[in-house]
Every structure is written in C-alpha cells, then in structure tokens.
Design brief:
Layout lengths: L1 H17 L4 H8 L4 H27 L7 H8 L3 H8 L2 H18 L5 H25 L2 H10 L1
C-alpha cells in the first residue's frame, strides 16, 4: 500500500514538473472539480504509459523500429491509407501480435505488480474515454458497453 501511495505521489510530482498541470489546479483535479483538466491529465499519462510499454517491448524483443517504415509513417501522419499499408505488411502484423501478447503478459503480472497496475490504469482510462465519446456522440451501444466495463 505504501508503494502505491508513493507511486501516486511521484506521479503527481511528475505531472506538476512536466507542466501538464499547476499544483493548485492538480489539487482541484484530485478533488474532482475540473473534469476537462482531469481528462487532459489522464490522456497525457495514458500516452506516457503507452510509450513506456512500447519502449520495454522494443528493448526486450530487440526490435529495430527503423526496419518498419510503415509504422513510422503512420505514427507521424496517421490516416486510413497508412493504416491499410501497415495492415498489409506481414512483418508489422507479426510485431503487433507479439505486442498484444506482451501486454497480456504484463496484465498477468510478468513485469511485476507496478507494471500490472499501470496497465490496469491504462485500460480504465481507455474505458472512460470511450464513455465520454459515447455520451458526446449519443452512441448508445458504446455507452452501455463502457458502463459495463466501468
């Protein structure tokens, strides 16, 4: 429990130091008074967790990202044609399958409890973002699905 509290405190410190949110605003966010700021913070932390997971995956599997120009192009300028290009490449699909398996290993605790916690956090934020999108677009099926996951 102490480790989790330390992690939460360290995360708050990093959020303030990175300039995502000021200390006074972060306190308001933690108290539930600034929904839009809270969403922005969660999105930023979600992106950071995603980058860290991808970095660990690439390091552990000794993957040379430069050998996948389709992924680099997709990351720089995402659009449908570049997604189709990536999906048409067997090597990219293999890496994506391996990454999905890696995430399942993390979810099962292979990288430890802290990594498992952050992956659960990632899943919760995605569910929340899908719920917000469903409410904004009046997409009832996604809203119900998100509520079930929440």
């Amino acid at each position: 429990m102490i480790h989790l509290l330390f992690t939460a405190h360290a995360t708050q410190t990093h959020i303030i130091q990175s300039g995502i949110c000021a200390s006074g605003s972060l306190e308001q966010v933690m108290n539930g008074k600034h929904f839009k700021r809270a969403l922005r913070i969660h999105q930023q932390v979600l992106a950071a967790v995603g980058r860290l997971l991808l970095h660990v995956f690439v390091d552990r599997n000794e993957i040379d990202i430069s050998s996948f120009p389709e992924l680099s192009s997709l990351a720089e300028h995402p659009d449908t044609s570049k997604v189709n290009d990536a999906n048409g490449n067997a090597a990219v699909l293999t890496v994506m399958t391996d990454y999905t398996e890696f995430l399942e290993k993390v979810r099962n605790g292979d990288l430890g409890k802290t990594a498992q916690l952050w992956l659960q956090y990632r899943d919760c934020v995605w569910t929340m973002l899908h719920f917000v999108q469903a409410v904004k677009t009046n997409y009832v099926k996604l809203c119900i699905q998100s509520l079930r996951q929440l």
